[in-house]
Amino acid sequence: MLVDSHCHLDRLDLAAHDGSLDAALAAARQRGVGHFLCIGVSADNAADVKALAERYDDVDCSVGVHPLDVQPGAAPALDWLLDELNHPRVVAIGETGLDYHYEPEAAELQQESFRLHLQAAQQTGKPVVVHTRGARADTLALLREAALPNAGVLHCFTEDWDMAKAALDLGFYISLSGIVTFRNADALRDVARQVPADRLLVETDAPYLAPIPYRGKPNLPQYVREVAEFLAMLRGEAYDVFAEQTTANFKRLFPLARVKGVV
Q1: What is the pTM of this model?
Q2: pLDDT tens digits along 119-134
Q3: How far lies 90's CA from each of 53, 63, 102, in Å?
Q4: How many domains does one find in the chain?
Q5: DSSP tag of 10
């Protein structure tokens, strides 16, 4: 069984499934995907991701504010975040983090929001889902400062082994998406070979970043199978063993997730 550890079910392009999320999830289940983590990115979509987690037994969710969704002068309130995290199907915080690639001028605002999410993680013990791009030093500095009890995951990882090793040393997991299948991703493939088997997750980040051979098309949770098959081959591991290992990793990191068949 596989877990899509990071997808945006409220944002999927469902044209391939006649507009039906039920059909899209059924297609993923038919390919061995047994659980989905639907990711919150803003205060506006928190209700949507919680509703999806309530609707489907094999969906859990996170709540948080993506760094590119933080509004000037309006960092999310800690009380709001803690209240949202009380929901029984909210198993993680985020996605949060830093993205200087698109908004370097918003660094201070993003750091304020990231610190707030990390404070919520310290208070609740729930793991954080971290987005980082173009902000390696500051991301690691804030994670070290937070010293989280249950850490979290660097999702859709695209950095080098030095950053991966630093995150692993802090207790974080590394999640790989369809980017690892891209032709120009040799450096990321080197990282993928080195991540310890018990600290690796797989994801789609759907509807974004569809893997080869679907690159350029809307991504769907069913394509996490392509990511997992590629990584198993890259690492020289049997697919079934790889799938079960990454599923066990997910359950260990997100113990509140209702993953069937995993103790």
Answers
A1: 0.96
A2: 999 999 999 999 999 9
A3: 8, 7, 28
A4: 1
A5: G
